[in-house]
Write a structure and sequence with these properties.
The complex is a heterodimer of chains A (415) and B (247). Chain A is mainly alpha-helical and 415 residues long. Chain A is built from 18 helices and seven strands.
């Protein structure tokens, strides 16, 4: 039976694992409240103590690795590492092959504004197509290769160049479901990666099941051996454990200072995140909606609630406009063509992804019981903001009208 | 000295506990155990803290299918039949807690059947020696009672004891075992200490407490989920260990 957090509305069926206590408050809200109560100055001082031993002695060496993708947290993480911690980062990026024109622009802009070196790995289109076929079949996911590549590549580069410290931005499980307290100072681990990023499916498992994958060099998707990690003392830390992570404020700051550009979406008010990806707010969000009964809209509303920018009632009232969504057909067709999938494959994918527990009605096949419950039970209380106001609050960053078409590479952008 | 990983379960989910008053879901047990195996922990203790026996059995079978590390299992075990099922499902030992106070004769029967070495006795304690959680409430600041239980079961070769500090939350409340152990004569027992341990205090605990017992082991829970290669970090935090354990 699904239960809901009485504070933010998140369902207990969250894929990362949400614990709801006897008072009806979820672990995500409890951890988020630490942002208002912890001594963040002291925690930031600890961060400086932690990174100091990693500063290289020479002028040319790198102090740390910063994984980036040109969007979301990349700008702020890099800004903090370079200008606050005053470290020399080597940036590492996994090219998902899903990047939009805006994504390429933001990445090029990041390179020139921050004057940094970037190591980019670009897989072949056929490799991504083959991996996607396997993961869409097994996991209903077209983002597995992005998670696998972007979490493994920095570790491989770290070992190759003997740069032991990797600095990440926010920890998604801490931010969304409070899997750890900020005080745990959780670090990067192969266990977390395999359990959550890879959805308990390693590349080894996929290769054993889908022999066509062995035609490619998949080494970048395999996490390095523990012996190497121990030998070079590789560790990955998260800035969100040491500074109060507030994506909206950070992204607006990056837009003002470094011209990070965003866009608008139809499925959510928050255009600040993932503007670099052609499919994240299209087919990827639709697959999430079918599997879990909610999409990025609820994730974003929960974040607004926890930051006390809107009430639970307002958030649930906003859901009324999204009770009868339709599939993003143009984005789906674009993905189908790009990944060379048949219409039958796509139809099979959506049929297998759709969880009947969350979509019980045959009259309204895409009406989620999660959204229905939230709207029916929480929206009657006092509201303090409506959807137009919410969209308005997310226009403080420079907006860029961009097509959702993906590009593997693009010619350079003017400085 | 053994490094023991204690995995807490609520239903089929591995959880972190903060002083048994707050929980966070970690994830899938097979992934957790697979990585603990890679780190070569000496032993894994599985505690079903909601006392759901059906979940305990299925979790144990799942863990056994991926792990070769010795497994101790506990959580609401209250009869010989339950212990039989657990041993047949792959457990190497059982962890007995409430049954010691509820029916010590049943514990003796289990020891007779499977041998005293198959039993680990677990006692929870906190600052005031009052052990209370949502599942039980026991007062054993009566040292004579605990001492008599231990000496009674010693004749059945039960000499493995797990002391768990429930007031240590792993964040702010640091475990204090020394004051607690001073009240008992445990020189003939193998002791496991657990509750809020991390490498920073592991060395202190080990050096201060090893004098009180025949063999001392340390049990870690939350820490294993928070750092890569936590096992190695723990071992490096205990420099009094023999060199081969550090390599």
């Amino acid at each position: 039976m699904t239960i809901f957090c009485q504070s933010c509305g998140y369902p207990s069926t969250h894929p990362l694992g949400l614990y709801i206590n006897d008072q009806g408050v979820c672990s995500g809200c409890i951890t988020h409240d630490e942002k208002f109560t912890l001594d963040w100055s002291a925690r930031e001082a600890k961060l400086f103590e932690l990174v100091n031993p990693y500063r290289s002695k020479g002028n040319c060496s790198y102090d740390c690795i910063v994984p980036i993708n040109g969007g979301t947290d990349s700008y702020y993480t890099l800004y903090y590492v370079k200008y606050i911690l005053k470290m020399k980062p080597l940036c590492v990026a996994y090219n998902s092959l899903y990047m939009t024109r805006l994504g390429h622009r933001n990445l090029a802009n990041l390179r020139s504004k921050f004057n940094i070196d970037i190591h980019i790995h670009t897989p072949s289109l056929q490799q991504v197509r083959d991996i996607n076929r396997a993961t869409l079949y097994n996991l209903n996911s077209m983002y597995w290769h992005v998670h696998a590549g972007s979490t493994s590549l920095p570790v491989h580069i770290s070992i190759k160049y003997k740069i032991p410290l990797i600095i990440w931005g926010g920890h998604e499980a801490v931010e969304q479901v409070g899997m750890y307290s900020h005080c745990d100072n959780v670090e990067m681990s192969a266990r977390y990666r395999e359990n959550h990023h890879l959805m308990q499916t390693s590349m080894l498992l996929l290769e054993n099941q889908f022999l066509s994958l062995r035609n490619h060099n998949n080494s970048i998707y395999h996490y390095p051996d523990y012996n190497l990690i121990e030998k070079y003392s590789i560790r990955g830390i998260y800035l969100s454990n040491y500074i109060p992570w507030n994506q909206k404020i950070q992204q607006e700051l990056m837009s003002r200072k470094f011209h990070y550009r965003v866009t608008k979406y139809s499925n959510t008010f928050n255009g600040y995140e993932h503007p670099h990806c052609a499919f994240y707010n299209g087919i990827h969000d639709w697959l999430k909606y079918l599997q879990f009964g909610y999409g990025r809209l609820l994730d974003h509303l929960v974040r607004e609630i926890r930051w006390k920018r809107i009430s639970l009632s307002s958030a649930c009232f906003i859901l009324s406009d999204f009770l009868n969504p339709t599939p993003p057909l143009s984005n789906i067709r674009l993905f189908q063509e790009y990944m060379d999938l048949s219409t039958n494959s796509i139809d099979f994918l959506f049929d297998s992804a759709k969880n009947s527990v969350f979509f019980p009605s045959s009259d309204n096949p895409y009406t989620s019981s999660i959204y229905n419950y939230l709207f029916s039970n929480f929206s009657h209380l006092e509201s303090n903001i409506d959807y137009d106001d919410l969209i308005g609050s997310y226009t403080n960053a420079q907006c860029f009208s961009s097509s959702s078409k993906p590009y593997i590479f693009l010619p350079g952008f003017p400085f | 000295m053994r490094i023991i990983a204690t995995i807490l379960f609520i239903e089929d989910k591995v959880v972190q506990s903060y002083g048994f008053s707050s929980y966070r879901i970690i994830g899938d047990p097979t992934i957790v155990v697979k990585h603990l195996d890679s780190w070569q922990v000496d032993e894994i203790t599985v505690l079903q803290i909601d006392n759901s026996f059906s979940h305990l059995l299925s979790n144990l079978q799942l863990i056994n299918s991926v792990s070769t590390t010795p497994i101790t299992v506990g959580g609401g075990l209250s009869s010989l039949e339950m212990v039989k099922s657990v041993i047949e499902s792959g457990a190497d030992r059982v962890c007995i807690q409430s049954l010691v106070f509820a029916n010590i004769n049943e514990v003796k029967t289990i020891a007779d059947h499977f041998g005293g070495q198959s039993i680990t006795l677990k006692f929870d304690f906190c600052k005031s020696f009052l052990a209370s959680t949502s599942f039980w409430s026991l007062r054993f600041n009566n040292i004579d009672l605990v001492t008599s239980i231990l000496s009674d079961l010693k004749s059945y070769d039960v000499d493995d004891i797990f002391f768990y500090n429930t007031s240590a939350d792993g964040l702010v409340q640091v475990p204090n075992f020394t004051d607690f152990l001073l009240n008992y004569n445990l020189s003939d027992y193998s002791i496991i200490l657990g509750g809020g341990l991390n490498p920073e205090i592991a060395n202190q605990v080990f050096c201060q407490c090893r004098q009180y017992c025949k063999e001392l082991s340390l049990s870690f829970s939350n820490y294993f989920y928070q750092k890569e290669l936590a096992n190695k970090l723990i071992l490096r935090g205990i420099p009094s260990l023999p060199a081969h354990r550090l390599s």
